[in-house]
Amino acid sequence: MNNCILLRYGEIGLKSKKVRLKFEQQYVHAITEALKRHGIIKFDLKNFGGR
Fold first, then answer.
1. Which of 8, 27, 28, 42 is the most buried (most CB within 10 A)?
2. What is d(CA 50, CA 16) in angstroms, rounded to the nearest whole number?
């Protein structure tokens, strides 16, 4: 069975490309660390969309 968690990041999508990329990198890092802290070591993060 596959589990899926969908996240949206709201107004980050309204930022300029440079700022948005920085926020997205921080967001991915925070999610990765949170999953690892909870013992989830096998996961795949995908970013769909954009502006």
1. 27
2. 11
Q: Considering the entire predicted model, what is its pTM?
A: 0.73
Residue type for position 51: R
For 24, the 3-state DSSP assignment is helix
Which element (helix H / strand E) includes 18? helix 17-37
Report the distance separating Cα 49 and Cα 51, nearest Å.
7
Query: What is the DSSP code string of 2-15?
Result: --------GGGGGS
Q: Are 37 and 30 in contact (CB under 8 A)?
A: no
How many structural domains does the chain have?
A: 1
- Give the pLDDT confidence of 1-51 residue by residue, as tens digits: 778 888 887 888 888 989 998 998 998 899 999 999 999 988 888 877 655
